[in-house]
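Title: Comparing notes on inverse folding

I've been comparing how different people in this forum approach sequence design from structure. To keep things fair, I'm posting one structure and asking everyone to reply with a full sequence. Here's the target:
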């Protein structure tokens, strides 16, 4: 007998976004509380019905919640889910907010039309931005003085339709809504909170309940930091008597035990507005909001630098003028080369970039992290080779920011340690372009460490000195060797390999002992790193014999004598090997982590990507007749995930699979099934399609039917034995495999590299990425004979793992490099 589940009725606005946001929370609750079941009750609110006026013109508070409040009060629903930014600052008596969700992407975004040419100053007409928010208009007017603002109402899809029809040149939306609707590809420009402060509570979902009822099952979705941020923001707006449609704005960020709150206060009587910021204890969130509100309210009357908008100005009344930027530039230090030394913040900023301006001192593994859709500009800086002058780089950053783009200037090491970051910021600051600096691990710290040289050691020295040997163009200045020779510390010279002889002779001539330990370190933190350790008098000759090349760092000091004792990087099992992984990005992380732990320099270079097939009628037919199948066999982990994700989306209970037997081609597929709570009964001893097909032909009995969910380019290896045995089966494609359109982001494939191939399609994708490569010089480690045959067609030097699994590939790699 089926177990009776408690049914909870949940209220939501009827828009697609509101329903999707509500379901987002309900799915999280269901995972933690399978004993509960939910019934969704949707309704249209006052705010949804009035579409001919902006919200501030409609007036009143709670335009999007009144009908849901009534249903909650009358116990027609058990709780309701709202976008917190749409809720009044005061809750009705007896109906508090009982849970705040984790915060999504908080920024507003500009969206441009699809299928039409974008507006440009040469169009001869104003730039028309669609918005229904006075808050957004106030702030955007300062960024786009030439723009006209026009009212737009309706749900997200309606607004996008109006935009694409040509009624606007751009519209402003909340990023969180687009992302939750699966429309993140429509985002063109993120508006940073220091440009456009979001609405209070933006990107937080709030659950409203009734006093006295047990909502402990909501603890699984509650987020304490979001609650504190919301209390600060709403405290600010509440004190200033604003509401969800008010131009007053606030945005808080929790940093440790503190909250940093930024707010915008608008004085309707004068049309003045002012922004400001305060930091305070997170546990006093509401008090922080009130304090900032009081501060701005007291300041706005006497400030002349605050913004001013004509009171009562209609939405299309912004003055014309010169356009200013809504873009922003991040100067990001990528570290010396090892992607493990690339900071978390640097990775996050890079992942959101629309334009990346990079040079070749950035490690190749980090260059592969650049977003696929980003515009990539190689300014090609190498030692002594600057094909793009610094002045031109500065201009590129300015121009791309003026286009409204999120621009990342990606630099090796740290931007401010001989990286000319200060020069690049000067032009941006002059033109009032917003920027941030993300520091990186500098070579002076990382490269000696990877060579076993501690740049400070209490028994040898207590200071380290960073020196550039690169002279400013047109300058006759030279290094002050008299001072450098007398320093009681480690000297680290950047960009000095071509001047190595002059540096060493200059130090000795200035009085440094000839037997002072010194080292030159080439390509530090990579698999190709080399070190030459000698004395300051002999180092130039030793480096010449070893043919040391740039990029290289020169280290002079007693600590260099510790290198042989403290060496470690190249002694790791794969410490001298660079390995290129061509698997799809979402499937490569585990293998990459395994290889990195063994010391390899790993470059993720997805040669293929996979995606589930939408509108999949064959799969829908299979779902409708699950009871007819006795077997389901999977040939990949991707097939497992796509099948079960689609099963869940279709609302089919996994218990409908009871009685069906499962087969898996190998360990990875078997593990993917186990994660779904299903254990494969059949698995071949050899992990190939032919072996699986042969085994199934033996196992599937008379009158039984087999379902085979797999890739759209599945080979006949599996199906041939089934056909020969007369087995009834349905071969259903559940995902597509697409070859990469990339060009390797400038990656040079070296003869000493090993490229891993896990399928024939990864071979084809790799060849497509490097069309002019001499494949005879490529060493390819292949999983399985089918993959090896594909690689051999191109002349690749083939090495085949003993088994078709990741463990065997790693074992083979260790065997190769011994």
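Reply #1:
Here's my take.
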């Amino acid at each position: 007998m089926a177990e009776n589940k408690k049914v909870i009725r949940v209220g939501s606005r009827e828009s697609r976004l509101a329903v999707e946001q509500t379901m987002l929370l309900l799915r999280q609750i269901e995972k933690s509380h399978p004993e509960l079941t939910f019934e969704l009750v949707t309704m249209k609110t006052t705010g949804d019905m009035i579409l001919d006026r902006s919200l501030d013109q409609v007036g009143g508070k709670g335009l999007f919640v009144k009908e849901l409040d009534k249903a909650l009060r009358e116990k027609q629903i058990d709780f309701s889910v709202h976008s917190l930014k749409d809720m009044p600052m005061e809750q009705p008596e007896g109906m508090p907010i009982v849970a705040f969700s984790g915060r999504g992407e908080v920024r507003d975004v500009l969206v441009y039309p699809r299928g039409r040419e974008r507006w440009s100053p040469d169009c001869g007409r104003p730039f028309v931005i669609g918005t229904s928010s006075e808050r957004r208009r106030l702030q955007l007017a300062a960024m786009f003085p030439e723009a006209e603002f026009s009212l737009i109402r309706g749900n997200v899809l309606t607004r996008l339709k109006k935009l694409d029809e040509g009624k606007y040149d751009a519209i402003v939306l909340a990023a969180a809504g687009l992302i939750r609707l699966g429309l993140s590809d429509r985002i063109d420009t993120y508006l940073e909170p220091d440009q456009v402060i979001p609405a209070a509570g933006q990107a937080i979902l709030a659950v409203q309940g009734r006093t006295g009822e047990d909502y402990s099952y909501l603890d699984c979705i509650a987020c304490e930091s979001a609650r504190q941020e919301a209390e600060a923001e709403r405290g600010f707006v509440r004190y200033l008597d604003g509401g969800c449609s008010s131009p007053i704005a606030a945005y808080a960020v929790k940093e440790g035990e503190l909250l940093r709150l930024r707010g915008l206060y608008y004085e309707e009587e004068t049309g003045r507005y002012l922004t400001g910021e305060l930091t305070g204890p997170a546990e006093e969130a509401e008090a922080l909001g009130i304090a900032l509100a009081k501060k701005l309210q007291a300041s706005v009357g006497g400030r002349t630098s605050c913004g001013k908008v004509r009171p009562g100005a209609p939405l299309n009344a912004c003055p014309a003028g010169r356009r200013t930027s809504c873009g922003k530039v991040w100067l990001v230090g990528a570290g010396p080369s090892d992607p493990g030394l690339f900071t978390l913040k640097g990775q996050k900023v890079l992942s959101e970039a629309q334009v990346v301006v990079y040079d070749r001192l950035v490690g190749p593994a980090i260059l592969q992290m650049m977003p696929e859709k980003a515009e990539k500009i190689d300014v090609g800086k190498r030692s002594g080779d600057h094909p793009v002058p610094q002045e031109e780089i500065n201009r590129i950053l300015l121009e791309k920011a003026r286009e409204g783009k999120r621009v990342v200037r990606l630099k090796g090491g740290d931007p401010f340690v001989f990286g000319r970051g200060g020069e690049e910021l000067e032009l941006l600051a002059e033109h009032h372009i917003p920027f941030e600096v993300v520091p990186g691990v500098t070579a002076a710290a990382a490269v000696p460490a990877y060579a076993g040289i501690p740049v400070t050691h209490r028994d040898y020295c207590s200071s380290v000195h960073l020196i550039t040997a690169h002279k400013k163009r047109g300058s006759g200045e030279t290094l002050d060797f008299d001072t450098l020779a007398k320093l009681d510390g480690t000297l680290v010279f950047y960009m000095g390999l071509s001047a190595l002889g002059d540096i060493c002779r200059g130090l000795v001539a200035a009085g440094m002992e000839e037997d002072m330990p010194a080292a030159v370190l080439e390509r530090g933190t990579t698999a190709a790193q080399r070190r030459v350790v000698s004395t300051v008098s002999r180092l130039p000759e030793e480096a010449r014999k070893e043919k040391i090349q740039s990029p290289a760092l020169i280290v002079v000091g007693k600590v260099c004598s510790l290198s042989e004792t403290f060496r470690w990087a190249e002694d790791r099992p794969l410490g001298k090997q660079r390995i290129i992984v061509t698997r799809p990005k979402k499937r490569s992380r585990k293998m990459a982590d395994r290889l990195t732990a063994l010391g390899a320099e790993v470059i993720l270079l997805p040669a293929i990507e996979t995606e589930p097939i939408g509108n999949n009628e064959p799969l829908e037919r299979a779902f409708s007749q699950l009871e007819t199948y006795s077997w389901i066999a999977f040939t990949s982990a991707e097939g497992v995930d796509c099948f079960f994700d689609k099963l869940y989306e279709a609302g089919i209970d996994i218990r409908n699979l009871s009685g069906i037997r499962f087969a898996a081609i190998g360990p990875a597929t078997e593990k993917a099934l186990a994660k779904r709570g299903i254990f494969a009964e059949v698995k071949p001893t050899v992990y190939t399609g032919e072996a699986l097909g042969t085994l199934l032909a033996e196992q599937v009995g008379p009158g039984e039917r087999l379902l085979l969910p797999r890739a759209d380019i599945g080979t006949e290896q599996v199906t041939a034995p089934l056909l020969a045995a007369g087995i009834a089966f349905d071969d259903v494609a559940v995902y597509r495999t697409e070859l990469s359109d990339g060009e390797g982001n400038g990656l040079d494939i070296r003869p000493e590299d090993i490229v891993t191939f896990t399928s024939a399609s990864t071979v084809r994708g790799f060849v497509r990425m490097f069309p002019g490569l001499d494949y005879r010089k490529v060493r390819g480690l292949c999983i399985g004979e089918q993959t090896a045959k594909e690689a051999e067609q191109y002349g690749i030097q083939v090495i085949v793992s003993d088994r078709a699994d990741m463990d065997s590939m790693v074992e083979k790699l260790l065997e190769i490099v011994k």
